[in-house]
What does this fold into?
Amino acid sequence: MRVLAVLDGTSDAAERRARALGDFLSDGLTGDSCHETLVVYHDQRDRERLVALAPTRDLRLIRVPARRPDGVVESLTAAARATDAGLFLFPGDDAGTELAARLAARTGGAVLTQALSVEAAADRLICRRNVYSAHMVGRYDLSGSPSCVTTDASWDGAGWAPPAEHRVVADTDESAGADKPAFDDVELLEHPAASDLAESRFLVVAGNGAGTREGVDRIERAARRMGAEFGVTRPVAMSALAPLDRLIGVSGARSAPALCVTAGAYGAPAFFWGIEKAGFIVAITIDEAAPIAGNADAVVIDDAVSVVEELAEIVVAARRRG
It folds into this structure.
């Protein structure tokens, strides 16, 4: 299996990321595989430094416009289509997780974050990661192609060193217009802090039952109309249908609102940990057997998107009546 370790050199911490990737390739990846590094960079002055940091001898270079995650993902998607790579490996920081999730969504592949180890089998990857606040280790079989995996934070590369020699096997320049602004007219707004989820009094959480990006967006708009904070479950975040800072659960925020409405959430233990301290939980789901139905104070068996939108109309109307 061909493995492409993705070194994003368009932002800070390239050296730390290279060490983490190299450490994992050396001791965390087993099985029959060949390794290359895919170096994404913008500034020509960084090129040689990034080549020297690459954790594998063979590497591919892609020069892109100034860092925008969507632009980097477009380049990675093109690389996935041009190669037979079965695994794209990313460092386990926020930037690596975002790129992994977006690439998997673009290519129809699989995604797994915070991997402790990966075994490359003939037609699939066997991955292990910590679950339930690191009290257990879970095993995951990834059969989607390509598989997009991030390393666990424990792979820090302490004492690891890059190869003495490197060989560039491909060199692509996609930086046309790199010095032009990405947008002609843009207003920068302060992004809501992740703490707003932890401190919210009224929370609406969209789950995989929302179905599509449109469904997730409709639930978010309804939540905002009601004055609620908006969060999502892990499947929604990992499908790149919402920002990772909206994630509720073990790997995201933990909230204790007076009222929590879950819309299409299955209710896995790792998610429920994030809302179990809520004063009152309303679950909207079409699956009567979902764990959330057994843990909620009230359950509505119906389409999550339409029910949340109707709830927003009721709340808005009640506020108008004073």
